[in-house]
Amino acid sequence: MTALDPKPFLAAIFNAAVAAADPQRTIRDHLPAPPKGRTIVIGAGKGSAQMAAAFEKVWDGPIEGLVVTRYGYGATCQRIEIIEAAHPVPDAAGLEASRRLLEKVQGLTADDLVVALISGGGSALLPAPAEVLTLADEIAVNEALLASGAPIAAMNTIRKHVSTIKGGRLAAAAHPAKLVSLVVSDIPGDNPALVASGPTVADSGNRQEALASIAAYGMKLPASVMAHINSPAADAPRVDDPRFSRNEVHLIASAGVSLEAAAAEARRQGIEAVILSDSIEGEAREVGGFHAAIAREVATRNRPFRKPVLVLSGGETTVTLRAKGKGGRNSEFLLAFAIGISGMEGVHALAADTDGIDGSEDNAGAFADGSTVSRMRAAGVDAKAMLAGNNAWTAFNAVGDLFVPGPTGTNVNDLRAILIS
């Protein structure tokens, strides 16, 4: 262990997790049979452009298509058009992308094939408000969701009930063509109908569940939105809708697979690894405190795991906004973790979003160790005050511990890696 440099080691763990979700590796194994008619490729998400590029390379036959991704996440494609739009708050470019995607699947026949490349982030990238609503309404919904602390499954159940494209509606528009969805999951539990709010996959969630979540998390939504969700017009297509009878859904990458790859990389470097879970949810700072308690127990009592060990977890935490600081769920998790292990030797951690962006800045997450809080103090930063103000980015930036790998081209949610030597 003495020769192991923690930051490069943890970065290698992150890279192994991302590589396992690389669409260049995963799409080839899930190609549908070529159709008699046309092949149309559509898609949305932070990994959709790279998925489109990978699909072009392995598809033997003519294709055309359109996918939308986040600004700065594009890729070079020859036959599939890439549109960029805003994330996490929708914009007019996303509205136009939704219109064009719906237009792209109009007028198809039963001989045609639609391939949908879906990854996390597609909810914000596909604003398509119901007829009685506006883009401003959908933006207000998104902002309320992001500030609520609600889990991603609840958020996406609400989103699909204010949309004309989510909740299986894009698939319904493509009927009678056969539709095959290739999904990179960023959802705890890997329900493909919740990834990007399921534009091509229906699920059993209903508007009563959406209303229950709005009430449970105290969301303040525009009156027009509440009126719509309370009306039958908000109902999404059902799972047993006959328009979906020929459709297929394939999960081609997930947090679980990526965590296994991260563990294998640790063992390759001589460190035993354990996976707590691939679907941890909850308030980021509370989850950070829980992980810190595990790290302290291992470091001081050699239980429940024997050191040296790498403790891994995945999933998607949430942040209830209490102030207007800079940060994201991974940096907030890690700041709470750093406070919990302050002063301990031999504990190093990385928390990062596998898509390469945590929150609204350019970092995926950050590094922390037992000296993080004292180094912040020396830099004039109070770690607890930064945490209280949702200002984790500022805190880690002050000590040079932000992790900035850039956009990765995939998205299987958050990776938390804790090395205890």
Quick structural overview:
With 421 residues, this protein is α/β, with parallel strands linked by helices. The chain has 16 helices and twelve strands.
Please, could you describe this protein's structure?
With 421 residues, this protein is α/β, with parallel strands linked by helices. 37% of the residues lie in helices and 17% in strands. It has helices at residues 6-20, 23-26, 48-58, 92-104, 122-125, 135-148, 152-159, 169-174, 207-216, 223-229, 255-268, 284-301, 329-340, 372-378, 383-388, 392-398, and strands spanning 39-44, 64-70, 80-85, 113-119, 178-184, 248-253, 272-275, 309-315, 347-353, 365-369, 402-403, 414-420. The strands form two sheets. Strands 3-2-1-4-5-6 form a six-stranded parallel sheet, with helices on both faces. A six-stranded mixed sheet has the order 7-8-12-9-10-11, sandwiched between helices. Helix 3 (48-58) links the parallel strand 1 (39-44) and strand 2. Helix 1 crosses helix 11, helix 12 (284-301) runs parallel beside helix 13 (329-340) and helix 13 packs across helix 16. The longest helix is centred in the last third of the chain and has 18 residues, at 284-301. One of its GO terms (molecular function) is hydroxypyruvate reductase [NAD(P)H] activity. Residues 310-414 form the MOFRL domain. Residues 10-229 form the MOFRL-associated domain. It is an enzyme of class 1 (oxidoreductase).
